[in-house]
């Protein structure tokens, strides 16, 4: 699967992408706002699971390599998974290598995947969660057209303390207005 955006290609991973995926997951900034980072064994297991997702039917989880359109270099990961089938809610997430931060790539990838969810996955609602201290992720959610639903108080245990979590969403009817 490939989704083409203005400057990016969002595509399924192949077995050749493991070294990139490992680099992304081993970067300490990728998990700065999480309680734990995966170890080498978990990274390998997660990657094998991602490869298996591509043949699931129906597919309820997409982990896609974010690549530059110009030279197809992988720079990050964007994902979307079915959270709640009854209300057609999907959850989007993202991570980029730090050298590609603050260039609009995360926003473009998230916005593109939200559009795909509404046009191809029959989504009614797309949500994103972020540690309340992760201001960069909050900015991505806002720039991607998501609206803040609220704060979930002390729902994350991060860096040995309880942290609040932000929840943002985009709704199907809002996507048709844009």
From TrEMBL:
SUPFAM superfamilies: Acyl-CoA N-acyltransferases (Nat). InterPro entries: Acyl_CoA_acyltransferase, GNAT_dom, N-acetyltransferase. Residues 8-164 form the N-acetyltransferase domain. PROSITE patterns: GNAT (PS51186). PANTHER family: GNAT FAMILY, PUTATIVE (AFU_ORTHOLOGUE AFUA_3G00765)-RELATED-RELATED (PTHR43792). This is N-acetyltransferase domain-containing protein. It comes from Paenibacillus odorifer.
């Amino acid at each position: 699967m490939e989704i083409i955006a203005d400057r990016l290609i969002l595509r399924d991973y192949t077995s050749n992408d493991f070294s990139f995926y490992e680099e992304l997951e081993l970067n300490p900034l990728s998990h700065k706002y999480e309680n734990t980072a995966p170890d080498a064994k978990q990274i390998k297991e997660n990657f094998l699971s991602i490869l298996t997702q591509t043949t699931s039917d129906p597919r309820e989880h997409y982990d896609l390599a974010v690549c530059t359109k110009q030279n197809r270099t992988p720079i990050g990961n964007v994902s979307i998974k079915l959270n709640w089938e009854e209300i057609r809610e999907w959850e989007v997430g993202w991570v980029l290598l730090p050298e590609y931060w603050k260039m609009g790539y995360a926003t473009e990838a998230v916005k593109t995947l939200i559009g795909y969810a509404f046009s191809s996955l029959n989504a009614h609602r797309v949500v994103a969660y972020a540690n309340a201290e992760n201001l960069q992720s909050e900015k991505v959610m806002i720039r991607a057209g998501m609206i803040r639903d609220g704060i979930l108080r002390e729902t994350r245990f991060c860096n040995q303390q309880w942290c609040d979590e932000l929840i943002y969403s985009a709704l199907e009817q809002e996507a048709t207005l844009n």
